Structures are given as structure tokens and as C-alpha cells.
């Protein structure tokens, strides 16, 4: 059985690599979270057998990682992932100069403060209650249900549950309907934390390709028909990270195929409202099948710090969700729910602000990339990011070089299931233009290092999540 380390490395990507190059690849996996702190790695002998390399080579790999603080080795206890101490500045304070491109999210909407003030009387009126809210506030569930209804899917408040963000919603769904050892169809690339959640719930993953031009619908439907996975996780609107959108015709066919083989579709609509200039609006996936489970969030249209998400599901699934939820939380914070009620009354203003910000961010990235001869930026009509083609399989090398210039940049394989997509790079379009310009200046320095084979001497930046 292939170890997780070799799955993440992708044996084809490290064939013939030196011990130093292998150590760099493992370090990249650790820094961007594909290998977790405390995780046990294969023994030197086992790794040598998997990679078909000599024992001395794998011993050297672990020696290099241990010397830099990325693994610890105990006699009889194996080799485990660690992180070196976080770099500090001259005055002993943490180095905060890095630009973090692993997070594709904007700062808060200008209306957040006023919405918070307006929400306080609503919150005060609930002081005499227990404060627990498994389903969510009725008025917030009504507002979310109205969003679905306005988009073409009549929805009742009883079909909505309010959660602490979309990822929390996804984990609650998996805790409720999940089956360890079953298969799950996932897009490749996709949202990394969704992959981690599926792994944690014991799923075996079946990737189906997505690119800036869209999905390989035949591959997706053939996988559903022949593999009959228990569930499929899809991001159909401004897909993260490619920005692609499924057409209504594709949604209809995929929903029908999934229904025919008994695959539960879980649709992530976190990015559905991030339209810049797509020029058309698809129906929600749930319009094509009543059994579809949809998760959504306020984090991209209002603020990531306001942890409000939701689940739309039929009443039978909702009953199971309500039975499962108390085992790990008793509801969502009331203040955030009260603020969300106010914000959802201003959806046109929210989405207009988001479109303006994303348009400026997209233009800033496109302008900066004009000086990169071999990197192409695809048409990006909305979403969080641009999914770049680097023209060569250098994504991990570029990510490592970027850290030496104070730029945290997840490589393409971070968004995959098995060490592929080395030609690809996700660049957020969510930063202010001036911050984007600074980040791209640092990317240019890293790019020059990779292209010339040089390295910059710099302190390690801390590992961060990819959003």
C-alpha cells in the first residue's frame, strides 16, 4: 500500500531526484499543509522501496529534513513531521512582513460596522433565551431561503440550517451521512480543506479534471456510472481555484447521472456570488434534484471573520443533521447571525462591492503578469483567483523560492489529490491592487531564482492554511 507521503509526492515527479531535491519536495509538502505536524512518515527502508531508490538516499533525505527542523526521529518511534521555530525579527517579534497568498479572501465589506450596530437590538431581545440555536435564527433561515427562491429554487426555512461557516457545514454533513471506506468523487483541482475533511472521514478519493475551460463532463459522468461513489463534492460556480462555471445543461446531466447511481451530490456555493462580468447566471444545482445538499457562506461576500454558513437540504436529511449536530456543537454564535440578517437585506450592495473589488484585483494581477514571458493568465470572469499556467512543472520550486522573498504561495499540487498540477499556480485576485503589485514583485524575484537555478537566503515563513 502506497504511503501518504509518496501519494503526495507523486512518484513520477521525483524520479531521479537527488536527496536534496527530495528533501525540498517533502519540505514543501510540510510548509503548505499537505503533511501535518505530528504525522508519521514511512521508515527509511519503506520509503526506499516505494521510491525504488537506495536506502542511503532516503536516509540522506531524512537527515537533511531533521537538520532543518522539519522531522524528528526517535529510536523505535519512527520519523514524524515537525516545524522549525518561527523566524523572528531583530527585536524578537514574529516576522509579519510576509504576504500570504494562501488566503484568497477580501477584507470586510464597508457595511459591516453599520450592520453590526443595527443588529444589537435584535441580539438584546434574545437575552432571556438560552442562547442556543441548533437550526439558526428563524429570520436568518428565512433570508437564506429567500436567496434560493429568488435564484429559481423555491425553498422553505425548514430546509435551511445555519452553521459556523461553509467548512463547518461540510464537516457536519460528512459526520451525518459519511461512510468510512467509501469513495468520493472530487474535482481536481479543488478546495484543499475539503480534501482533508474527506480524508479525515475515511473516504477514498476519485478525482475528475477541471480546468479554466471547464469540466470534462464525460469523465465526470463516466466516473459516476462506473465507480458509483457514495458522494461527489463539486464547486460549480466560479470554481476554486480555476474560476470555471458549469452550464445549466451540464448541471442537469450530472444531477441526473448522480441520481441514477445513488451518488449524493454535495454542492459548495461559497463562491457563487463572486461575479465580475460572467454575463449570465446559472440555476443553482439544487434546481435539478431535490436530493442535492448545498453549503454556502457569508465569508466571501461580507468578511471571513464572520463565521456564518448554511446548509440547504430536504427535510429528511435536515432531521439527521439536527440529530448529529449536538455531538460537536450546539449552534452558531447569535451575534454573527444577527449581523447576517442585516447584511442579507443589502445583497445588491454587497455583491456590487465584491464585483468592484475583484475587478480591481484581477486587473492588478493581469498587469503584473505582463512582464512574465512564459506565464499566461486565463480569462477570469469571477471567483477568488486566477489559475495560472507556468509553462513548466516548477510550481513547488517556485513556492519554495517565494518563501525566501517573504511570499507564502501554495503550489499547484496543494489543490490536487496526488502530487500533480506542477504547471499550475493559484494567484488570489482578492488583495488591494497595491498589495497585489508588491506580491507580484516578490513573485518575480522568486521566478528569476527558479529560472536561473539560484536561491535567496531568507528566513522560513510559517505554514498557513489555503482558503
UniProtKB/TrEMBL annotation:
Query: Which PROSITE patterns does the annotation name?
Result: HTH_GNTR (PS50949)
Keyword Ubl conjugation found: no
Give the UniProt keywords, A-Z.
Answer: Aminotransferase, DNA-binding, Pyridoxal phosphate, Transcription, Transcription regulation, Transferase
- Enumerate the Pfam families for this protein: Aminotran_1_2, GntR
Report domain HTH gntR-type positions: 16-84
GO molecular function term, any single one: DNA-binding transcription factor activity
The answer to whether UniProt assigns keyword Transcription regulation to this entry is yes
Q: Which family does it belong to?
A: In the C-terminal section; belongs to the class-I pyridoxal-phosphate-dependent aminotransferase family.
Concerning PANTHER family, the annotation shows: HTH-TYPE TRANSCRIPTIONAL REGULATORY PROTEIN GABR (PTHR46577:SF1)
**Identification of the protein by name:** PLP-dependent aminotransferase family protein
Species this chain originates from: Microbacterium foliorum
Amino acid at each position: 500500500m502506497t504511503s501518504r507521503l509518496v501519494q503526495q509526492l507523486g512518484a513520477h515527479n521525483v524520479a531521479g531526484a537527488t536527496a536534496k531535491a527530495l528533501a525540498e519536495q517533502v519540505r514543501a509538502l510540510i510548509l503548505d499543509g499537505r503533511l501535518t505536524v505530528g504525522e508519521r512518515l514511512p521508515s527509511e527502508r519503506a520509503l526506499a522501496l516505494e521510491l525504488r531508490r537506495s536506502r542511503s538516499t532516503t536516509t540522506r533525505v531524512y537527515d537533511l529534513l531533521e537538520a532543518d527542523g522539519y522531522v524528528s526521529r526517535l529510536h523505535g518511534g519512527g520519523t514524524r513531521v515537525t516545524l522549525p521555530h518561527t523566524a523572528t525579527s531583530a527585536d524578537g517579534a514574529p516576522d509579519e512582513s510576509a504576504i500570504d497568498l494562501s488566503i484568497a479572501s477580501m477584507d470586510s465589506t464597508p457595511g459591516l460596522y453599520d450592520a453590526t450596530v443595527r443588529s444589537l437590538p435584535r441580539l438584546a431581545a434574545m437575552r432571556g433565551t438560552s442562547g442556543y440555536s441548533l437550526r439558526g435564527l428563524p429570520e436568518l433561515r428565512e433570508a437564506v431561503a429567500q436567496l434560493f427562491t429568488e435564484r429559481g429554487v423555491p425553498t422553505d426555512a425548514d430546509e435551511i440550517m445555519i452553521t459556523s461557516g461553509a467548512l463547518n457545514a461540510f464537516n457536519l454533513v460528512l459526520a451525518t451521512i459519511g461512510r468510512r471506506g467509501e469513495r468520493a468523487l472530487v474535482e481536481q483541482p479543488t478546495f484543499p480543506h475539503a480534501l482533508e475533511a474527506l480524508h479525515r472521514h475515511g473516504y477514498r478519493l476519485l478525482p475528475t479534471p477541471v480546468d479554466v475551460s471547464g469540466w470534462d463532463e464525460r469523465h465526470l459522468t463516466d466516473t459516476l456510472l462506473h465507480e458509483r461513489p457514495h458522494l461527489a463534492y463539486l464547486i460549480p460556480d466560479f470554481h476554486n481555484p480555476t474560476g470555471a462555471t458549469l452550464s445549466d445543461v451540464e448541471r442537469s446531466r450530472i444531477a441526473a447521472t448522480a441520481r441514477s447511481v445513488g451518488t449524493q451530490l454535495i454542492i459548495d456555493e461559497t463562491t457563487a456570488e463572486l461575479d465580475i462580468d460572467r454575463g449570465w447566471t446559472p440555476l443553482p444545482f439544487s434546481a435539478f434534484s431535490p436530493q442535492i445538499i448545498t453549503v454556502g457562506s457569508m465569508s466571501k461576500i461580507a468578511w471571513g471573520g464572520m463565521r456564518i454558513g448554511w446548509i440547504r437540504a430536504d427535510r429528511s436529511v435536515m432531521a439527521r443533521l439536527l440529530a448529529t449536530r449536538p455531538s460537536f456543537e450546539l449552534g452558531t454564535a447569535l451575534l454573527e447571525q444577527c449581523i447576517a440578517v442585516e447584511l442579507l437585506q443589502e445583497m445588491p450592495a454587497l455583491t456590487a462591492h465584491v464585483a468592484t473589488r475583484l475587478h480591481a484585483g484581477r486587473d492588478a494581477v493581469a498587469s503584473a503578469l505582463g512582464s512574465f514571458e512564459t506565464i499566461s493568465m486565463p480569462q477570469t470572469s469571477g471567483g477568488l483567483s486566477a489559475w495560472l499556467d507556468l509553462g513548466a512543472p516548477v510550481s513547488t520550486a517556485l513556492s519554495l523560492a517565494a518563501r525566501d522573498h517573504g511570499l507564502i504561495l501554495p503550489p499547484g499540487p496543494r489543490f490536487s489529490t496526488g502530487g500533480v498540477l506542477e504547471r499550475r499556480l493559484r494567484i488570489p485576485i482578492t488583495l488591494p491592487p497595491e498589495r497585489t503589485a508588491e506580491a507580484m514583485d516578490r513573485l518575480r524575484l522568486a521566478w528569476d531564482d527558479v529560472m536561473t537555478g539560484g536561491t535567496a537566503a531568507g528566513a522560513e515563513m510559517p505554514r498557513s492554511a489555503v482558503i
